[in-house]
Write a structure and sequence with these properties.
The chain is α+β, with helices and mostly antiparallel strands and 618 residues long. The chain is 31% helix and 19% strand. The chain has 14 helices and 23 strands. The longest helix is centred in the first third of the chain and has 24 residues. The radius of gyration is 29 Å and the shape is elongated. It starts with 8 loop residues before the first helix and ends in a 12-residue tail after the last strand.
Length: 618
């Protein structure tokens, strides 16, 4: 049959029936790994090992509403220990799809290629690649992988040749379009016959020039269609620098103009997620000897803080990176369960306003967490010290409040999980070199299902002065419990005073009641930290005070969500409701509480099971 002749009706009907009766899809989701040579390996706790750990944490995008389809990163300064990394998400993928693919790829590549300096992982939605040799802006077509649809076009030779001609012609056009596109991708459809379309997509890494993208795609294009997947109704070819795919069905779904990056998707429903998903231990575990060396055997001079569960030490890894080491004391309240909880949560959470977990150690009786080093200590170090309060002008305090709010919004709404922190307080807010807030200490955090609104516990954990009344007295907690703690923090930041140690001449209540009293008397400036009294932003400070009081309302339903809080902080066009009187302050002598000399440390105690309706102010 001539290639340009019409196809007879009988074979066409056979093809249509075949396509109706069987699925087009290739089957299970595709993935493949390339692990480099056995001659290029690294050892555990080497400089390259730590550079690679940091690289993989950087290369997986965080919560940002929009992310690029392509990104590359470099960690380290001295070859051959520099880690170069790159990812490429499929051009039609939404932000959440891209992010989830990269999180999975980071875990799977560590399992598939342990100790390999060079590795590539291809999957349906993304490619992840790293090496100790720079490969940026270099066109590479080997190694390559291909996979073919299991369905044949037809047993007739003429129809197969016609199909291959249609696909190659479509691919030729796609190569030209992708090579001239700023994002280096193109997609289109072509008619195989009067009823059946063929769909194609090609893509290159964005660091290639147009001519390199063209050359990459053409290198294996004809072989993919005519040889590798000859006679099949679909196939894909993947190389380190480009990829192509064609199918009888529309395997891609573009949501906006193809000239624009993909729009973000809403957060993924957590009901299909596994609560116990843990990042591969090998990719995060650091041996005790390395930590000992980094902290000079936990020398007292390296100690930068003491938390409720143990000491925090400054350290330096073999690659020169500074770290913070949280060593849980053997007699601390945090056992193996809380430790595993913190590792499990932090390994999955990535946000600029959350402290980043770099690794952990669980050997014998040692339980150690390794975090990014945050140089400016914690918020309480500045906020409650009269000699240091002056370093926190209103612009800085406003930035800190905004950072905490965005971090909490991520935990409650935008992360892959819904997290209730349960111990939000000034000492758990770390400050980086630019005084950006980073929420820390997730040992008491709890995961909620996406449709879950509250939970109850008999084991109350938290810090006096920051807990909502329904949680402190009855063990009921929700996202609104965290909102209450956030409101306390806002009022502390504005006043420069600690709620659970508040004392004011002529006033017998706590900080929240004092804020309400000054608000009711229309003298809010009396509540503000004296160092801010001359601030030109008095109206803004009063607005933030209003928001803080709304967050500490006694009735849960009267408190705003963190989504609303962030909107109120960012937009002055939003009219604020008037607050009502906040609840009583739960003192450290509350029924069932374990005594502790420090009112700022996290506590554990039993719960009063009486109905909430019986709770009355003191």
């Amino acid at each position: 049959m001539p290639l340009n002749s019409p196809i007879s009706e009988a074979p066409k009907m056979a093809i249509i029936l075949l396509l109706l009766l069987v699925p087009y899809a290739l089957g299970a989701e595709y993935s493949s790994n390339y692990c480099g040579s056995n001659k290029t390996t690294y050892t555990l706790n080497s400089t390259y090992y730590f550079n690679l750990l940091e690289l993989l944490s950087l290369i997986s995008p965080d919560h940002a509403l929009t992310i690029d389809l392509f990104s590359n990163q470099t960690v380290g300064k001295s070859p051959p220990d520099v880690a170069y990394g790159l990812y490429l998400c499929r051009a039609d993928k939404l932000a959440n799809d891209c992010r989830n693919c990269l999180i999975t790829a980071s875990k799977e590549i560590a399992k598939a290629c342990p100790n390999q300096k060079h590795a590539i992982r291809w999957s349906d939605d993304c490619m992840l690649r790293y090496s100790n040799d720079s490969f940026f802006s270099k066109m590479e077509v080997d190694p390559f992988r291909y996979e073919c649809n299991k369905r044949n076009v037809s047993s007739l030779d003429g129809e197969r040749k016609h199909f291959e001609k249609v696909v190659v012609g479509m691919m030729e056009e796609l190569v030209i379009e992708a090579s001239n596109h700023s994002k280096k991708y193109a997609y289109k459809e072509a008619m195989f016959n009067s009823t059946q379309k063929v769909f194609g997509l090609v893509q290159c890494t964005e660091d290639l020039s147009g001519s390199e993208c063209d050359r990459c795609l053409r290198t294996h294009m004809n072989r993919a269609v005519n040889e590798f997947c000859g006679g099949k109704i679909g196939g894909r070819l993947l190389t380190p620098s480009c990829n192509l795919r064609y199918e009888f069905y529309e395997f891609y779904k573009f949501h906006t103009s193809d000239d624009e990056p993909r729009a973000p998707s809403p957060p993924e429903s957590s009901k299909h997620r596994d609560k116990d998903e843990i990042v591969t231990e090998q990719s995060l575990q650091i041996d005790f000897k390395t930590i000992e060396a980094a902290t000079r055997n936990f020398h007292e001079d390296n100690k930068v803080g003491e938390g409720g569960f143990g000491g925090v030490y400054e350290g330096v890894l073999p690659n020169g990176r500074k770290i913070a080491v949280k060593r849980l004391s053997k007699g601390s309240g945090q056992g193996a369960q809380e430790f595993k909880n913190e590792v499990r949560l932090l390994a999955k959470l990535q946000h600029r306003n959350l402290v980043r977990l770099l690794g952990f150690c669980l050997e014998a009786e040692e339980k150690i967490l390794i975090y990014e080093y945050v140089p400016n200590k914690s918020l309480d170090y500045f906020l409650f010290d009269p000699t240091k309060q002056g370093q926190l002008d209103w612009t800085t305090r406003c930035k800190i409040i905004g950072g905490i709010a965005r971090g909490m919004l991520y935990l409650h709404e935008d992360s892959r999980l819904r997290i209730i922190h349960r111990d939000l307080k000034a000492s758990n807010i770390l400050l980086d070199e630019e005084m950006n807030a980073k929420i820390s200490d997730f040992g008491m955090a709890r995961i909620f299902c996406v449709n879950q609104t509250q939970a109850r516990t008999n084991r109350i954990v938290g810090t006096f002065g920051y807990m909502s009344p329904e949680y402190a007295m009855h063990g009921k907690f929700s996202t609104q419990s965290d909102v209450f703690s956030f409101g306390v923090l806002v009022l502390e930041i504005i006043s420069g005073k600690r709620n659970n140690e508040f004392c004011h001449v002529g006033f017998s209540g706590d900080l929240l009641c004092y804020a309400w009293d000054q608000w009711r008397k229309e003298t809010p400036l009396e509540f503000i930290d004296p160092s801010l009294a001359k601030s030109i932003a008095a109206s803004e400070i009063i607005r933030f005070m209003n928001i803080g009081l709304l967050c500490v309302q006694k009735r849960v339903e009267r408190r705003p969500s963190m989504t609303t809080v962030v909107s109120m902080l960012n937009s002055y066009s939003i009219a604020l409701p008037l607050p009502q009187k906040p609840p009583f302050f739960v003192s450290k002598t509350s029924k069932g509480a374990e005594s502790n000399p420090s009112t700022t440390q996290s506590m554990v105690w039993s719960v009063d099971h009486s109905p909430i309706s019986q709770v009355h102010p003191r």
